[in-house]
Amino acid sequence: MRRQQDIIRLTDMFLALCEKQGGSPSADNAGGAIDQQLRMLAVKIAACFPDKAKVESSLSQLANLHDAEVYKGLRETMDAKNDIKAVRKYQKSSLKKLSGLAPSLLDTTAPLWKCVGLTTINRALVPFLIEHVSGGGRFVAAAEVLISYITSVFPEMLRSSSAELFDVAALQVADMTATEERLVLMVRFAKAIP
How much is the pTM? Predict the structure, then answer.
């Protein structure tokens, strides 16, 4: 998850530069400073994947597309506030648009789309994990590990589930262990999101 967070952060910076570059010719963008930064970010992102040269080349081509819809789709795919349906919707529409613009980029950028897409652990999973952490049962340890990762790596996912986390009725459960675990989770949440 930390590797994914790093790639998401780099990709977000890459997309911001792509959008800043816009439709202007590359000679006009402050002496090529934006192009140089894009190349540097493409190298850093590509270093996270097995086929570095292919990914770097495809990221350079992606930057030269100047297509706001593809950039927006990739950005929304990385947004921790989106649930699985929204992530899949943005992936599908953006990849369809990309296939129309540059079909050769589909295969070479696929690892990036898969890596930054928050499809395995996303916002929809957090209430389920909160329920298991505070409810006891056989999945408590696994749920607790996932919640601790989410708290440290993607705290914005918890922000959308704060209503479930701070439910007073759940604190008034007769099971003292579940109440203690819920309070510990609330403290972790408060530390992650001041």
Answer: 0.69
